[in-house]
Design a protein that fits this description.
globular, single chain, Hydantoin permease, 425 residues, mainly alpha
């Protein structure tokens, strides 16, 4: 077995001899990252749809989103590169800076939410044994340590031997008990409160999409891209389906109320065990925030960036609330769905899975304007179709924003590239 490297990997390609993770490692990683109290909370929004529409959206959205996630990860596995570097052949080196900044912002937000929910749960379950800011500092310290240890150590030493099995066990107990609870039959026959299938689909697919700007940061360590692809797809889709479904059964939108509900129904110790696994989500967010920052400032040490991200997020966790979480999910989809519509189209269709060092690291590849234009067009489509937007046309048939924005970005990019090729011929 290949030894686990303690080296700090920045944005340079990981050589084949240092790619230590196999398919089972990636199943453990991505199934664990699909677990979380915030996924329960996202699932609870779907109780506004009919039960049939919610379940259909959960299955289709989880599988479709996980396919996109795995495809984005395969670029990293094929070339040993980070997510932001995988954008450079289409967007250019300087063109990748804008996605990097947006990704850093969303990752600081996710890290803040994760630390907040861990600290809030611990505060509730221990009866205010410590002040809430102290819990935020404790969990922030744990996340920082995991981030500094790096993906190889976390997957093999933390998840593989400990955290993921706790997550699987507690998840199974919670889902089974929810199905057997007195209110389950009412939920199963619910007609909802007007949420359409496509709005529900947008909310489900937003979760795997939110991991797309991170996936290659971890899948670049894969021994084989094919096994990492299937393990990522199956692992994430499985737990995303389970936890969104659990959120529908719980049917509470408030995170604090959700924590209390789980505590009352399943005893505090199960809640504490679930908190243990929550740390790996925060680790992934903080680690990738540092890697995304290195896309712009490559000489800054990764461990200092991780400490900075976690410290800032821990402070934010004490002063902000988790209101508008639903809007946060929809905004992530609006930005990153069309972004990866361009990236996946460029890699799998335009360049036929053949990226070169020159495409990824040559300073002359500054800004890929076709990619920027196509991305902007996709975001505009999402903006018009999203109910969050002032430009939303409420009289239009509900088709959601995910599929149209993805298709728009991809087709516009292909049209521009084809037009340029024709003119240069």
């Amino acid at each position: 077995m290949t030894a686990i490297s303690s080296r700090e990997w920045g944005i340079e390609p990981v050589p084949q001899k240092s790619r230590a993770l196999g398919g089972f490692d990636y199943f453990i990683l991505w199934s664990s990252l699909g677990v979380g109290l915030l996924v329960f909370s996202a699932g609870s929004f779907l109780s506004e749809a009919s039960f049939f529409d919610a379940v259909l959206a959960i299955i289709i959205g989880s599988v479709a989103g996980s396919i996109l996630l795995a495809l984005a990860g395969k670029i990293g596995s094929d070339h040993g590169i980070t997510s932001l570097v995988s954008m450079r052949p289409s967007f250019g080196i300087r063109g990748s800076y804008l996605p990097a900044v947006l990704n850093i912002i969303q990752l600081v937000g996710w890290t803040t939410f994760e630390i907040m929910i861990m600290a809030r749960a611990a505060d509730i379950l221990t009866g205010n044994m410590l002040p809430y800011p102290a819990w935020a500092a404790i969990f922030g310290g744990l996340v920082a340590l995991l981030g500094i240890a790096g993906p190889l150590t976390v997957v093999r030493k933390w998840l593989g031997k400990f955290a993921v099995w706790i997550a699987f066990g507690t998840s199974a107990v919670i889902i089974i008990n929810l199905l057997m609870s007195p209110g389950a039959s009412e939920v199963l026959s619910s007609k909802g409160n007007g949420m359409s299938f496509f709005t529900a689909l947008d909310l489900v697919i937003a979760m795997p999409i939110s991991w797309m700007p991170l996936v290659a940061d971890y899948n670049r360590f894969a021994k084989k891209g094919k096994s990492a692809f299937w393990a990522t797809l199956i692992g994430f889709a499985l737990t995303n389906i389970l936890f969104y479904f659990g959120g529908v059964l719980l049917g509470t939108f408030d995170v604090v109320a959700l924590i209390m509900a789980i505590q009352v129904m399943f005893f505090g110790f199960l809640m504490l065990l679930l908190i243990v696994d929550e740390a790996d989500n925060a680790f992934a967010d903080a680690y990738s925030a540092s890697v995304s920052t290195q896309d712009i400032f490559s000489k800054i040490k990764q461990k200092y960036l991780i400490i900075g991200v976690v410290a800032f997020s821990s402070v934010l966790a004490t002063v902000v609330t988790i209101e508008n979480y639903e809007a946060f999910l929809l905004l992530i989809g609006a930005v990153f769905v069309p972004l990866f519509g361009v990236v996946l189209t460029d890699y799998y269709i335009v360049k036929r899975q053949k990226y070169t060092q020159d495409m990824m690291y040559n300073p002359k590849n500054a800004i890929g304007w076709p990619a920027m234009v196509a991305w902007a067009a996709g975001v505009a489509v999402s903006f018009v179709l999203s109910p969050l937007s002032p430009a939303y046309i409420s009289q239009m048939p509900a088709i959601g924003a995910t599929i149209p924005s993805l298709a728009c970005a991809s087709l516009v990019y292909l049209a521009i590239k084809s037009g340029r090729k024709t003119l240069s011929a």
